[in-house]
Design a protein that fits this description.
alpha+beta; D-Maltodextrin-Binding Protein, domain 2; three-stranded antiparallel β-sheet; 18 helices; globular; disordered N terminus
Amino acid sequence: MRKIYSFVSILSLSAVFFVSGCSSTNQENAGGAKKVVVWHWVTDREESFKKLAAEYEQATGVKVVFQLYAPSDIYSQKVMAAAQVQALPDIFGILGEKKVFASFIKAGHVLNLTPYLQENDGAWKKVFFPKALVVNEFAADNPYGIEYGVYGIPLDVMNIQMVYNKSLLKKLGVNVPPATWEEFITLCKRLKKELGVDGFASGWGETWLIDCFASSYAFNIMGEEKVFDTLRGKVPYTDPQWVQVFSLFKRMTAEGILAVGMLTMGNKEAERAFANEKVGFSMNGSWGVNVYRGMNPSLQYGVMLPPKVSEQYPMRIWGGAGTSFMVNARSKNKEEAVKFLQWLTAKEQQIRLSQETVNLPANKDSVTAIDPMLTAFAQAMDNVTHPNVWPVQESSEVIESFVKGIQSIIIGEKSPAQVAAEVQKIKTLTMKEKN
């Protein structure tokens, strides 16, 4: 997702806090003992990690110490500070954009894991969803000048699709979710008219979800090459197919299918509306399986790709690796660290993690033994894309104009053509500045 974690300058942090924290890690690895230290930020997996670490030590004699630092911004600050003094643990994660990841690799902090993935005819590599590894991969011609390779191992994957309430649709006499845009609009209108519930809700108060929704339809309407050529500046946002993308938001507003207050609704609020059966359709990530289970265990729902506008191009959805771990290239224990990650991503351990934390495992061979709703999300992993793996990225200024323009369409301030022209104006200015 385009959520970007903030990284605070090390100069603004407490030197005593970070130096003492990093020093303790070095002491734990001293003396040649077989010990692997892991820093992480995922609070929902802390207990599972500890249990798995105890099992691994019993089986191998290697002690694995998981150290939790949360929330994520505090974790990121600690990792950035430790990198400055070369005191990172054996295994850690990097939160942020691809360029941040690249900076860690250039500084010599991250081990290239490609040789390990390719061993034994690529046995380790083959267990993963291919799209999960791409997030941590740098292609041979990457713009950061990084040596080709995979530099991180995913523990889980995610994707963002649409969910639909089976019970509400059944009341309308519908047993199959809509496959096309027109069917979707018709069903949403019927939900409002016949059952008195909103058609569609999503947490568009978090603007990255608007970008996510629009991106999926841009790929479906014009294909990925034309989308990427737009980001390169070769195709203008005033192109008729981009205007068509903007027009989808006008259509939803005109048909009255959007939940009241969509533009101020956070994702948690949208999840609650769907779980409480106040809305028929929503757009959410695979993490929603755990959320809905907690909010309404009896909820009957299904998972679907966003309904197509065009049959010419496939529907693409945002997704990829969720939690990923990197190995410290300077660690004296890097071989043991790699072995532990190989064990942690094996089928049995992946099933355990998924069952205990309700996350979609990165090991594709594990999906047959997990929550059926997670399996439904897993079935669309071949449709996954994400800005972090695109060959070209859009500027933040254009993204901001793009999202604000869509908001103005929804509230009726501007037309799709006006928004297209305004976004293109910003795009032209950013291209000039770049050149």
